[in-house]
Amino acid sequence: MKRIYLDYAATTPVDEEVLKEMLPYFKNKFGNPSSVHSFGQEAIAAIDKSREKIAKLFSCDFSEIIFTGSATESNNLAIKGLTANLSYRKDLRSAGSVGADSKFHIISTKIEHESVLEPLKELERAGHEVTYLPIDEDGLIKISDLEKSIKDNTILISIIYANNEIGTIQPIKEIGKLLEKINKKRQETGLLKIYFHTDAVQALNYLECRPDWLKIDLLTFSGHKIYGPKGVGGIYVRKNTPLLPIISGGGQEFGLRSGTENVPYIVGLAKAVELAISAKGGSASGGKNREKRSEYILDLRNKLWKNIIKYNKGAKLNGSLSSRLPNNLNIRFAGLSNEMLIVALDQAGIAVSAGSACSSRALAVSHVLKAMGLTSKQMRESVRITLGKNTTKEEIKKAAEIINKIVKKLSPK
Fold first, then answer.
1. Residues 358, 376, 392, 408: which is the catalytic one?
2. What is the number of H-type helices and E-type strands within the chain?
3. DSSP string spanning 51-85?
4. What are phi and psi of 401, to 5 degrees?
């Protein structure tokens, strides 16, 4: 039985071109980048080349790309690193936006990844204030809500670019433009700048992520979501953004991330970013660029959705169909347990999920779907189907047949 993988939002297979770039650095080019000899120089040169490659693709400066061990670490660095730095700076305590106790205000959303929500909860326990913006029934925030939430002591806004569960795309560029205007006024009145962070882990494969275009200060990305290796991530940090490291030691990564660099994985990450963004597109996409690849996947996704609703009138899409990643479907099958459906589909050779891979083992109730207003019952009837560049027309046709057959079999009579 040929298995069909439809859980690309959880992770992706490593691209052959990515693996090819990585292999020499596991055995032949194994030097420590901090070593002075030729082995070390070979390793640091590979890191520099990788950093330069990503910086060029992001249209940013070489020093603004920081390599980490995961997107989770990158999100923690953005949130904790910024807050810690501003808290320690005594010169800011007399500024109009900071009290003597240096307590800050942060704005985020109710549908962030856990690696954003958990650090924010820690900051709340430390006395800082966090506003979690609500979403509408399509899974989108309102910029007017964000603007109304800004206070004199607001120092950070962290909003996910594209949600990992429902695929909805937030208006990051529009928020960036708004903050640019607000920060100009704040500078005139002596208030601290509001820094802007986005988790772009799911977005990088499909959406424009150049920081200057988005008007963003901090941008998180990951290797294993873009056909690169697991265990490596990155973060764009705009020059003069005040961060303190959350891992201390040898001062690698311009002092922001200590620890011996994972050279093969960094090389793999850079190649994966190149294949995601550049016109080369990757071997599996037939040389199409990002836009063509997105169109191809969107066409497959729409065919799958039309087929499902044709035979399952009670199927309901969670989230907006238009403001959504082209590879994502989050579907509610009324009266049918998602746990039962996922297991049955897996036995039939199709891999889908209940939502975030970080919580799906326990099939926990989704905080994203809850924020959309779904009941507990409706949340437990929802499954996430996500396609990738390796998905074929034949797979989608076969998957539709199996999904419809199993849904009909398991649905209450």
1. 358
2. 14, 12
3. HHHHHHHHTS-GGGEEEES-HHHHHHHHHHHHHHH
4. -60, -45
* Cα–Cα dist 225/234, whole Å: 12
SS3 letters across 297-361: HHHHHHHHHHHHHHHCCCEEECCCCCCECCCEEEEEECCCCHHHHHHHHHHCCEECECCCCCCHH
Predicted confidence (pLDDT) per residue in 184-237, tens digit = 999 999 899 999 999 999 999 999 999 999 999 999 999 999 999 999 999 999
Q: What pairing do the DSSP bridges indicate for beta strands 154-158 and 328-333?
A: unpaired
Q: Positive or negative CA dihedral for 82, 84, 90, 93? A: positive
| Token reading at 241 | 């953004």
326: nearest Cα among 304, 308, 309 = 304
Residues 244, 85 contacting (CB under 8 angstroms)? yes
Can you read off the two tokens belonging to residue 69? 């061990």
Q: Which of 152, 163, 69, 82 is nearest to 123 (CA)?
A: 82
Q: Is residue 358 flagged as an active site residue? A: yes
pLDDT greater than 60 at residue 247: yes
Question: Which residues have CB under 8 Å from 186's CB, separation 6+?
Answer: 97, 192, 193, 194
Which tokens belong to 293?
Answer: 């690849």
pTM assigned to the model: 0.93
Is the pLDDT at 279 greater than 80, yes or no?
A: no
What DSSP letter does each residue of 158-189 carry, written as one string?
E--SB-TTT-BB--HHHHHHHHHHHHHHHHHH
